[in-house]
């Protein structure tokens, strides 16, 4: 990030892929967009934590996820860092053509690059992969995994 420690806010947009199963059979993949807002804290030069809210634009509905994540940052060059991290949260998906909502826990990891533009702003690109126990209480449909490719901007206070 732009500074070694302190509060930051971020916004990113990207592509979302949700894989759904019924029993042991793959039944659908939803490719959609997503937007994420996060508020975090840079603990030091190599560690950061954040809470996030992600809006998911499903092909026929809407959804959201929220949770916490931790990232470890590796310095590549003066302005560039590689990061790897872990996330834990909750997701809720609502399709218009079905009555039920699908909801449950999500957990997984992420990796990406940060590039400092100046003292306050940094660009972030990355990939997130979540496993889940997101399912419907009314049907036998469950979300097996959720994947995001994203790009965003962070502001360091």
Structure description:
- This protein has 157 residues and is mainly beta.
- It has one domain (6-156): Porin (Beta Barrel).
- It is built from no helices and nine strands.
- The chain has strands spanning 6-22, 25-44, 47-58, 61-75, 80-95, 101-116, 121-132, 135-136, 141-156.
- The protein has an eight-stranded antiparallel β-barrel.
- The chain is elongated, with a radius of gyration of 16 Å.
- The mean pLDDT is 89.
- Keywords: Signal.
- Residues 5-157 form the Outer membrane protein beta-barrel domain.
Q: Largest beta sheet, briefly?
A: 8 strands, antiparallel, barrel
- Strand order in space, largest sheet: 1-2-3-4-5-6-7-9
CATH fold category name: Porin
N- and C-termini, Cα separation:
11 Å
Keywords: Signal
Organism: Sulfurimonas autotrophica (strain ATCC BAA-671 / DSM 16294 / JCM 11897 / OK10)
InterPro entries: Beta-barrel_OMP, OMP/PagP_B-barrel
Protein name: Outer membrane insertion C-terminal signal
List the helices and strands and how they pair.
Elements: E1 6-22, E2 25-44, E3 47-58, E4 61-75, E5 80-95, E6 101-116, E7 121-132, E8 135-136, E9 141-156
Antiparallel strand pairs: 1-2, 1-9, 2-3, 3-4, 4-5, 5-6, 6-7, 6-8, 7-9
């Amino acid at each position: 990030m732009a500074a070694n420690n302190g509060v930051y806010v971020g916004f990113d947009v990207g592509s979302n892929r949700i894989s759904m199963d019924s029993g042991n059979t793959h039944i659908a993949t939803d490719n959609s967009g997503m937007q994420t807002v996060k508020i975090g804290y840079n603990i030091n030069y190599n560690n950061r934590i954040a809470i996030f809210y992600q809006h998911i634009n499903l092909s026929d509905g809407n959804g959201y996820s929220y949770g916490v994540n931790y990232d470890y940052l590796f310095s590549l060059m003066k302005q560039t860092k590689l990061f790897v991290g872990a996330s834990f949260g909750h997701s809720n998906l609502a399709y218009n053509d079905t009555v039920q909502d699908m909801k449950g826990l999500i957990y997984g990891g992420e990796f990406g690059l940060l590039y400092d533009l100046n003292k306050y702003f940094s660009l972030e690109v990355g990939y997130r992969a979540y496993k889940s126990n997101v399912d419907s209480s009314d049907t036998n449909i469950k979300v097996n995994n959720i994947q995001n490719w994203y790009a965003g901007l962070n502001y360091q206070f």
